[in-house]
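the two lines:
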Amino acid sequence: AQSVAQPEDQVNVAEGNPLTVKCTYSVSGNPYLFWYVQYPNRGLQFLLKYITGDNLVKGSYGFEAEFNKSQTSFHLKKPSALVSDSALYFCAVRDRAGGGADGLTFGKGTHLIIQP
Amino acid sequence: EPEVTQTPSHQVTQMGQEVILRCVPISNHLYFYWYRQILGQKVEFLVSFYNNEISEKSEIFDDQFSVERPDGSNFTLKIRSTKLEDSAMYFCASTAGTTYYEQYFGPGTRLTVT
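prediction for all of em together
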């Protein structure tokens, strides 16, 4: 069975500082990894994904994430945080070996709070 | 930009009643999904649907749940006899292809069972 761990319920960062939201995963095979963001009363918005190739992937709104196979991690990063980045962030995984219609397995989410 | 839409945004129902949650996936997408998020908990996969049939389902998706694509644009989730523990946010998602394609989510329907 696959799983995702987001060890921090909340991350607080001052505006302009770099931010990191942590994610580790467990799959039986090789992973496809995703980050989604959820604003209040909204659905999940896709930010970025790792499929293969370069371990550093870039996504929407200046976010990037680094895939580390040895540490089974896929941490979300941004060099300079904005107050508007404050939201709930979800890491998700699916196993490449799984069927084409497998659902995503999500972490429990991390509240990111950017302080002015 | 195309979006997944869901109706209603909020549904209140009494225990034992049937509810139908509706979704309109992005028009050229092929795979459709339902997820739920109980308040304060993680988003959980319920079911995926492709080529007019269920492809995968989780252990949560028991006999009280069913899905349908009645008319080529709508995708519905029916809960036959609602229970208090069915209260959750239900998200519909769709994707253009398999496995490594990102899923696009609708805004959700908040179901409250009283």
